[in-house]
Design a protein that fits this description.
The complex is a heterodimer.
Chain A: H1 14-23, E1 26-30, H2 39-49, E2 53-57, E3 65-66, E4 69-70, E5 84-87, H3 91-108, E6 112-115, H4 122-130, E7 134-136, H5 141-148
Parallel strand pairs in A: 1-2, 1-5, 5-6, 6-7
Antiparallel strand pairs in A: 3-4
Chain B: H1 24-30, H2 57-64, H3 79-92, E1 96-100, H4 103-114, E2 120-124, H5 129-138, E3 145-149, H6 155-160, E4 165-170, H7 183-193, E5 197-200, H8 205-208, E6 218-222, E7 236-240, H9 253-256, H10 267-271, H11 275-288, H12 294-305, H13 307-326, E8 331-335, H14 345-351, E9 359-364, H15 369-381, E10 386-387, E11 397-399, H16 411-416, E12 423-427, H17 433-444
Parallel strand pairs in B: 2-3, 2-4, 4-5, 5-6, 10-11
Antiparallel strand pairs in B: 1-7, 6-7, 8-9, 9-12, 11-12
Helix pairs in contact in B: 1-12, 3-12, 4-11, 13-17, 15-17
The chains are: A alpha/beta, B alpha/beta.
């Protein structure tokens, strides 16, 4: 995790994040690590357990297996369709990944560009948004999934969710 | 990365209704506690269980590796305790919290997570006596050195700083009473030094003061006091703001270096703004074991639901009792920051605008020796006030600190902590105010 960007804080409506995490089924994770103590590996494993297919993208490990999935060198190389790109790289690398995501979006069916906690590139986000791709920055899909679907509070984290309704389980 | 767009991104990120936007009364009742999803039980159940069934071997492995959220064993997490933890984080405006069996236990968890043997920290002298003993004696045996300073001059914190200092610890509203610290300059000193400011907010509660709004990085509570509120349950809470940069200058290897106890996991990198809480829970709480019981969490959750209305009455009653004592011919002095003649009145107005708490001290005429005897007589003659060592009960409480809570200290420490031989401490409860005045009047006789 690089340090969160110093720009003004980002706000995403809980309903938007819930919709993204409910609609997405397959996620391309750029920067997925084969090392099991790395945060990307944690997130990949967690999302797999929640029923998502996560396709690892990492040029250093192309062709190798990470958590049962073949790793690809870049988004273009992925043969299957995917709904979302999760950027597990530094902010400096996010722009190029965003441009690649925009380029393959129509072909691969990708509708969401999600940049990890600490990753933010406002200009890239604007380009993606202009191309019709929904953008989330400086958030972790694992933490947001846990927060929105009732698991994060188990670790004493302030989820910000106040509700008198029965909680619906996650997708 | 460079040019920041002025207009909102599409789809426009709307502000989410964060818990911070709800009033404290709402948070006190709702934060952390939604209906139980399977049965619909509206009140938080007491999950009186030690352990939790794994879905399968893989799930068990994920839990032990901290790769997923969930329950293993109630020494680490328990669903009832988790409700209290999230509620405490919400009330203090923090990111996350971990509870433990007592206030002293969370203080230990906090420092164990911050310090290596040989490290140092600075603490205000005006603390609950038990904390002075914990820091000065028991912590010393673990290789941690505490430098105590007079907090009424914030420069003293600056002067006491050493390269090995890893934290500053204060009570903004101090026990036994009457003293309010100027938090802002102390925050500035901690920031400059790159170390966290820890505030024990037990005496004020988040209803009267939210230290994180002034820049505190960690808040600790003895939930035993006003939070549980009815003298029923021991407990403690440690809350992290989520804003402290643990990686700034390599001072906190426990947060930023791979942890051998977790196969080389790095807590700050993996858990980000709730990494400190995760570390305190999964290392300090796991390995030393002072877990809060689910039943005590339940009583504390129930107590917190009425915290705002109770605190309103606590401070109103305390104000009346302090005024009465201040005008009483048998009373030498009253140290309550809610009184206009208190040197801390202006600070109380700034940091505790809803009231200066309900615990304060006073001395009887004939001080110090004659005051001592008159104090003992008073403690033994009251009828409504209970003579015991606690604060923050519905019942009014009375104590002679020099012979009880502050007994282990030296004369000098006692004096510095505001617990000299003539001092009487009150914790004003929720009885009819006139009855409290009448009781004190007959006892002062
Ligand atoms: C200000 C303060 N901090 C900490 C503590 C210790 O808490 P506990 O008794 O729950 O361990 C107390 C107890 O009196 C206290 O008054």
């Amino acid at each position: 995790m690089s340090k969160p960007a110093a720009e003004e804080p980002l706000h995403y409506d809980d309903a938007l994040l819930r919709r993204i995490l409910t609609n997405a089924k397959t996620i391309a994770m750029v920067g997925a690590s084969p090392d099991w103590v790395r945060p990307s590996n944690f997130a990949m494993k967690y999302l797999q357990r929640k029923g998502y297919r996560v396709i690892p993208v990492n040029p250093g490990h192309a062709g190798k297996d990470i958590l049962g999935e073949t790793t690809y060198a870049c988004l273009r190389d992925i043969p299957d369709k995917f709904d979302m790109v999760d950027v597990f790289r530094t902010s400096d690398a996010a722009g190029a990944i965003a441009d690649e995501a925009i380029e393959v979006a129509a072909n691969k069916g990708a509708q969401v560009l999600w940049m990890q906690l600490g990753v933010r590139d406002d200009a890239a986000a604007e380009r993606a948004a202009a191309a019709g791709v929904t953008v989330v920055m400086n958030r972790c899909p694992k933490i947001e999934y846990g927060r929105l679907f009732g698991e994060l509070g188990w670790s004493g984290v302030n989820t910000g969710i106040i509700s008198s309704k029965r909680r619906k389980p996650g997708p | 990365m460079n040019d920041k767009p002025k207009k909102a991104l599409s789809p426009s990120p709307a502000p989410s209704p964060a818990a911070g936007e709800y009033g404290i009364e709402t948070l006190a009742i709702h934060a952390g506690a939604s209906p139980e999803p399977v049965t619909g039980a509206r009140n938080t159940p007491i999950y009186q269980t030690t352990s939790y069934v794994f879905e399968d071997v893989e799930h068990a492995a994920d839990l032990f590796n901290l790769q997923t959220f969930g329950f293993i064993y109630s020494r680490l997490t328990n669903p009832t305790v988790a409700v209290l933890e999230e509620r405490m984080a919400a009330l203090e405006g923090g990111r996350a919290a971990v509870c433990a069996a007592s206030g002293h236990a969370v203080q230990f968890l906090a420092f164990f997570t911050l310090l290596e043997p040989g490290d140092e920290f600075i603490s205000s002298l005006n603390l609950y006596g038990g904390s002075i003993t914990q820091f000065g004696h028991s912590f010393k045996r673990l290789g941690w050195t505490c430098h105590f300073v007079d907090p009424t001059n914030p420069e003293n914190f600056q002067k006491a700083l050493t390269p090995k200092c890893k934290a500053i610890f204060i009570e903004v509203l101090a026990n036994p009473g009457g003293i309010v610290l100027d938090v802002e300059p102390i925050v500035a000193i901690a920031r400059e030094a790159g170390i966290p400011l820890i505030v024990d907010n037990t005496m004020a509660t988040p209803y009267l003061c939210r230290p994180m709004e002034w820049g505190a990085d960690l808040v600790v509570h003895s939930t035993t006091k006003f939070l549980s509120g009815h003298g029923t349950s021991m407990g403690g809470a440690l809350i992290e703001s989520g804003k402290f940069d643990w990686a700034r200058d390599g001072k906190f290897p426990t947060m930023t270096e791979p942890d051998p106890a977790y196969h080389g996991l790095t807590f700050y990198e993996t858990f980000g703004d709730f990494g400190f809480t995760m570390k305190a829970r999964t290392v300090a709480l796991r390995d030393f074991g002072p877990a809060m019981s689910p039943a005590n969490a339940f009583y504390t959750i129930t107590g917190i639901e009425s915290l705002p209305v109770r605190m309103e009455r606590h401070v109103a009653n305390a104000q009346k009792v302090a005024k009465f004592l201040d005008a009483h011919p048998a009373v030498d002095w009253v140290s309550y920051a809610g009184l206009k003649n208190s040197p801390y009145h202006a600070l109380a107005k700034k940091y505790l605008p809803r009231g200066a708490g309900s615990v304060f001290t006073f001395g009887l005429k004939g001080s110090p020796k004659g005051g001592y005897e008159a104090g003992i007589r008073l403690v033994e003659t009251v009828n409504l006030f209970s003579h015991l060592a606690n604060v923050g009960d519905t019942r009014s409480l009375i104590l002679h600190p020099a012979s009880t809570t502050h007994r282990q200290l030296t004369d000098e420490q006692r004096h510095a902590a505001g617990a000299g031989p003539d001092v009487i401490r009150l914790s004003v409860g929720l009885e009819t105010a006139d009855d409290l005045l009448a009781d004190l009047d007959q006892a002062l006789g």
